[in-house]
Amino acid sequence: MVETLLEDIFRVERLDPDGKKFDKVSRIEAISEQLEMYMQLDVNIDIYPLHVGEKFLMVLASTLNLDGTPDSGYFTQGGRKSLADKFEYVMHGKSYRISDNKVEICASFGGLLMLLKADPSDAQKLELDQRLFILIRKV
User: Fold this and answer.
1) pLDDT tens digits, one per residue of 14-24
2) Using only C-alpha atoms, what is the Rg of the chain?
3) Is the pLDDT of residue 48 over 90?
4) How far apart are CA 23 and CA 16, in angstroms?
5) Which residue from 90, 130, 127, 85 is spatially nearest to 112, judged by alpha carbons?
6) 3-class SS at 83?
7) Which of 14, 20, 63, 134 lies 20 to 30 Å (CA to CA) from residue 40?
């Protein structure tokens, strides 16, 4: 079974807080329900529109393999089931900065950025330069 690094349900609080920068990308601000995390996330709204007030499940995982084996780094399309089958929007990236106190995790998913502020106890499994998958499904 896949062990996730972090997961919670988020509610979109604001869209493009610093103004719209790109046609097909919006930056969302969201707050999680259980762990009270704060997240800014760039989302391609052309393929996955999100609106203020919507809730979504967000999962961070290091692999999409259902048996938990490490990911090869290459996408092979085939009949194999994966964690991605249970979600609507998936991006692959890497954490590039983690700061202390109220932990701030920054990750880049092909140039789409994420900032996640969490309690250190909730983010223990996250490491610097770690390959990540972010998986999202509206609830």
Assistant:
1) 999 998 889 99
2) 15
3) yes
4) 11
5) 90
6) helix
7) 63
